[in-house]
Structure to design on (192 residues):
């Protein structure tokens, strides 16, 4: 596209990748209850490793963390807005949350506009995450648009990888940054 010489490339909105930087990642805290409205249509998830001091997606067939015997865990993420704060963030959920979310999705055909409460039981950092989902009267069209959480996570993981690779004494990082998303219906057969 033609542009004025030496002028800025004026745009009404930042591109999608830059928008991805706006959303913090929220983990369910040991104490307290998260009360959010879901903005995503559905859950997006993948297997991850806590490896080399950071969370990274499992590289599946070519994964250094798997090769080194590091356990992988499934996580799912939703774009949400706080009921009281009205702040938006990406809420990280665990595999224990997948079944009630799936049941809700089947019944309501979307997660968008659902009220989600999440807490840990027992109230410890490694306590199991329990969620409740209930429909709300919120008009789906009035809620903020759901962001592609895969873009947000890619952005977070690339930053994490870049930081890691700048540490001279760091072990070799995993070779892939591409997450396996939930609609990949062929998880590795050798793990639960
Ligand atoms: Zn792996």
């Amino acid at each position: 596209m033609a542009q004025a010489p030496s002028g800025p490339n004026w745009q009404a909105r930042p591109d999608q990748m830059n928008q991805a930087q706006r959303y913090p990642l929220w983990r369910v805290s040991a104490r307290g209850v998260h009360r959010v409205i879901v903005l995503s249509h559905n859950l997006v998830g993948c297997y991850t490793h806590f490896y080399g001091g950071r969370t990274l997606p499992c590289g599946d067939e070519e994964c250094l963390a798997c090769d080194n015997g590091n356990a992988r865990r499934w996580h799912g993420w939703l774009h949400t807005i706080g009921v009281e704060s009205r702040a938006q963030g990406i809420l990280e959920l665990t595999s224990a949350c997948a079944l009630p979310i799936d049941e809700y999705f089947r019944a309501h055909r979307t997660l968008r506009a659902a009220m989600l409460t999440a807490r840990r039981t027992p109230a410890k950092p490694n306590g199991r995450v329990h969620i409740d989902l209930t429909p709300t009267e919120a008009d789906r069209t009035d809620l903020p648009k759901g962001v592609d959480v895969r873009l947000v996570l890619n952005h977070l993981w690339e930053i994490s990888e870049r930081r890691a690779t700048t540490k001279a004494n760091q072990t070799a990082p995993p070779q892939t940054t591409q997450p396996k998303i939930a609609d990949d219906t062929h998880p590795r057969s050798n793990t639960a």
Remarks:
- Confidence is low (pLDDT under 50) at residues 167-192.
- The pocket of zinc ion is lined by residues 49, 58-59, 63, 65-66, 72 (CB under 6 Å).
- The radius of gyration is 19 Å.
- The beta strands are 25-27, 34-38, 44-51, 54-57, 72-82, 88-94, 115-121, 128-134.
